[in-house]
Structures are given as C-alpha cells and as structure tokens.
Amino acid sequence: MASWFQSRTIDNHLEAHTPQPDYELDQEWQWPFWKFGYDDPNVLFTTLHAEFNSVKCAIQDPHGWHHDVCDIANIAKDKNEFLTLLKTRQNERFEEIQVAWEKTKALLSGELSHWNAAPDETLLWALFLRLARNFSYDSLVGYFGSYVTNDQPMNPPPLSRLAENRPAKQQQPKKWPGRNTAKSSRITKRSQAASLSICEQHKGRGGLRRSSRLRQQQQQQQKREYSKE
Fold first, then answer.
1. CA 186, 192, 195 angle in degrees (round to 5)?
2. From CA 16, how far away is CA 167, in angstroms rounded?
3. Which residues have a Cβ under 8 Å from the Cβ of 115 and sit 6 or more positions away?
C-alpha cells in the first residue's frame, strides 16, 4: 500500500485513502478471507476494494475538460500526439488539483475558524450545484476551497435566475433514411467548421491554471449553466 506521505498520483490515489491495517493486531478489520481462497486478507483494500467499492470520478468539470481538449487540439498534429498531450495534461491537472486540496484540507482541519467564515450563501449554493451536477475532483475542491479563500467571483447569478423555468425543448424533425443526403453533408461540414472555430478561441490559453482558479466559478459559465436549470 502507498505510504501516508507518498506523493499522490492518479495511480495511487485510491489506495492512499484506504486503511493499512495489521490484520494480526487490528481485530477491527479481520474477515474470513481464507473461506474464499484468498491468501492475503489485504485484498479487502486492494483488488476487492478497487473492483467493488469504487467509482470513477472526473478530474475536471466538463467546461475545464473541453477547454483542455480544444487547447491541445490546436497544438497536436496527429492522433498519437493528441493522446500523448492529453495524458500529460491529465497528470498536470491532477497534480494541480491535488496541491490545492492538500492546502484546503490542512486549513480546514487545523483552523476551525474557517468553518465560521463561509462564503456568501448564494455563491456556496452555486458551488454546491456545480459539485452535485459534475461530481468532479475540481468541483469538490472548489466547494470546500471557498471556505479558505476570497478568490471567488463577486457577482454570482441571482436566485431569480436559478429559479427560472427551463426553456421548452424544440421538437426534433423526423429523420428519413436515404433523404436529404446532400443537405446532411453540408450540415456536417458546417458543424466541423464550427467546432474548429470554437477550439481556435482557446489558443494561447493552455498550461496549468493557478490553484486559486480551481476554486472560482466563472460568472459567464455560471450564467450559461444555471439558466438551464
């Protein structure tokens, strides 16, 4: 198992947050592993834990992820380079968020006064909705990080906006096989052009973000998200 002081990575993050019992001394964690053919009781917190007591969690919320994909798409020349750069960015983002979490955890654990200094309730609610919707690592750090930083948007969306009804979904026209093939081709080309245009807007915005930005809920992003609620 990973040492408590071992640097956290994507590969050891799960085991770094599980107990490391001495099964001969810690009766609390004993279980009849031999009954099922296991030689080591530690499978309780290794293979069994990973397979049957774990879920995948996104590192970034969809907006941050889309931003990084577009940024890398502007740099990569082929698929292999694209995937290689994505892997590098994945590790960078995880390390960045992990550093922010360690700082937040230390402050909230060691200084109880932070719990009495909650941010504006509307902002806290918006951050919670972001966490509830995305359940990503950065949204979790952003929620708890709001207790230890003032680096937050000054004008979160008003409650009235959050309470607005969702716009009615437009009824999609029926698709008939074999018809309007040329039109569909034109639509596909326009869609591809639009996608390239969107990614072009992300040029020059790559690299690691500051840890404080992980705790920010950008005003424009909030307006887009919560107007859909």
1. 140
2. 44
3. 108, 147
What is the domain extent for residue 25? 13-53
CA–CA gap between residue 144 and residue 128 (Å, rounded) = 9
Q: What does the longest C-alpha to C-alpha distance in the chain come to?
A: 73
DSSP 205: -
Express each pLDDT in 180-199 by its tens digit.
555 555 556 666 766 676 77
Is the same domain home to 66 and 44? Answer: no
Residue 215 is assigned to a structural domain of this protein: no
What is the per-residue DSSP string for 143-199? HHHTTS---S-SSPPPHHHHTSPPPPPPPPPPP-TTSSHHHHHHHHHHHHHHHHHHH
The pLDDT score that the predictor gives to residue 48 is 96
**What is the rounded CA–CA span in Å between residue 212 and residue 25?**
43
Do 48 and 72 fall into the same domain? no
Number of domains in the chain: 2
CA dist 207 and 75 (Å) reads 12
Is 189 a domain residue?
Answer: no
Same domain (yes/no): 48, 71: no
Pair (141, 113) in one structural domain:
yes
Residue 160 lies in a domain: no
Q: Which residues in the chain come in under a pLDDT of 50?
A: 1-5, 152-170, 173, 208, 210-220, 223
